[in-house]
Amino acid sequence: MVWIISACPVAVHVAVGLLEQEPVVLAVPDRRVSAARAAVIGLLGRGAAEKLDVWPEEVARSGACSGIDSPREIWRLSCLAENDDATTVLWADVARGLGTPFRLFYLDPVAETPIEALPGPFSVFMHALHQTVDEVRSRDAGYFDRKALRTTLPADFASLDASSAACTIVAASSGPPFECRIAPDSVDRPLFSDAISDAYELELVMGAQSSTLTAVDRLFESRLCRIVDWADATRGVTRRARTVGGPELKSVVKDWHRCHTESLRAERSRLVALPASAAVSSSSGEPAFHIFGERGPTIVIVNAIAQDDRYWVRLIDRLANEHRVVTWTQRTWGKEGDAASFADHVNDLNAVINSVADEPVHLMGWCTGPKLCTKYCLSHPRQISSMIFLAGTYRPFGDARFDTDYEVALEMVFKLLDQSPRAAAMVRTTLLNALGGGRFNAATPDDLGAEVLARIDPALLTSVSAPYTDDQSTLRYAGQIREFWNYSIEQDVKGIQIPVIVVGAELDRVASPHLALRVAQAIPHAQYIRLPGATHYCMYDRPDDIASIIRRFLHDPYGAFPAASEVPA
């Protein structure tokens, strides 16, 4: 019996090929068991698939360590999966303990269709491409007409044919165990960049020098980092498998483009229906709230002052299947008829939490929200399990050198309004023009990529402008923000005793990511993550990245994130 340890598509082909010779167990991560079984059925048919055992890795390790099962050999197929190196070391130790030969195969990217049950590195590349192109074109539809997309991946980057790679692995297993890299052959390699350019209508330059990359390119590169590192590595003895041909590669890439286009269309349809699917509740004198999702941990969103839920819809769409996500409407007016105060919002948050959950919840605050989360956590510590701070504005916190140009300018304008309320109309017009032109989000002028990424997504402009709807709302908002700035959490954060994840955005022109790092350093159980190329509105611009961070954090709140100061997008 051979045990194959892998979640990559080739593993299924290898297992099916070996099945004619001896029994095979395919061990995959728990979350991929169903997908692996579906892939086996797709290759063998439902009846024949019953001959191949697909086990969760944990079950396989337990069986091996208890002596219930004794494989003849253990094969590990490594293909850039999460915790890949850790998994390899773990299974090498299992094999050593059993006295069983251990074979390690490193797989270069394999051409996969978008419906592949077990996605691998090729999928990583295509998703990174889609995310980057969509994010840029949402701000500047013609960017790629003027600029190429560049990556340091080698110009001869190619992808393997899954069946050929599987045959090469089986053939390489006939001798003594050794580390083996399965790489594309060098015969008639099609240009990967040509297939991408044809389908996505842009120029993809591969083999670029790092010094030539723009902010857009660096964002793309950060999403490809595992593949880039892999391409630069030398791993064991190389064995060659067939490279996917040009016409076949172009067909696969076009399938991905079609899939991405359909996914964007499906998301737009879901977002239109999202508010209607929420359960809306309110009591007399208490804030209205919405609950999205019916099961899982409860996450209560603490929005920015005077902002609506538009910023959150894409993130809610990603989270609501596995979490109960609660949004609530922050009041405009206090009970005495004046503008709602910071204390009013704390009381309202308490009312919402008492209404939606009987056990501690997770707070997720954005912009001004983290300060409110901190205040609430210290006054109601038993109500909160953990907190997530997204692109928070924390001033005053230490000296003023981390204040952004936006904050400094806004403070001057709001002081003017306090002294001359009649200037509200002029101030409102100036602020709206600045927001509409993206001047508050100006980036490095000699890097068009940074300037484009730093822009506000046009879909958010109405929401961003909402506090300045009329003169009265402008004056009220100015008063609320000035009160907010009068409250410091510099000492308060030291008393937070629950885990906190603090997210800063590299291109945030509203709130300083450097100050966010300082805040994280002051909280006893906090971690900091910096999102490259992201803006103040990261939960809207990067919903998949933020959702991934949240899932990992809630699963293991005290577990360290890779490269604590910055993680790939």
- What is the CATH architecture descriptor of the largest domain? 3-Layer(aba) Sandwich
Sum up the overall morphology in one term.
Answer: globular
**CATH class type of the largest domain:** Alpha Beta
Q: What is the CATH topology of the largest domain? A: Rossmann fold
CATH superfamily of the largest domain: Alpha/Beta hydrolase fold, catalytic domain
How many distinct domains?
A: 3
Q: Termini, distance in Å?
A: 40 Å
Structural class: alpha/beta
* Biggest sheet, spatial arrangement of strands: 10-11-13-12-14-15-16-17
Beta-strand content bin: 5-15%
Largest sheet composition: 8 strands, mixed
Helical content (DSSP H or I, runs of 4+): 40-55%
What would you report as the Rg, rounded to the nearest angstrom?
Answer: 27 Å
List segments where confidence is low: pLDDT < 50 over at least 5 consecutive residues. 563-569
Properties at a glance:
569 residues; alpha/beta; Rossmann fold; 3 domains; 8-stranded mixed β-sheet; 7-stranded parallel β-sheet; 15% strand; disordered C terminus
Characterise this structure.
It is a single chain. The chain is an alpha/beta fold. About 45% of the residues lie in helices and about 15% in strands. The strands form three sheets. The protein has an eight-stranded mixed β-sheet, with helices on both faces. Strands 3-2-1-4-5-7-9 form a seven-stranded parallel β-sheet, with helices on both faces. Residues about 565-569 have low confidence and may be disordered.
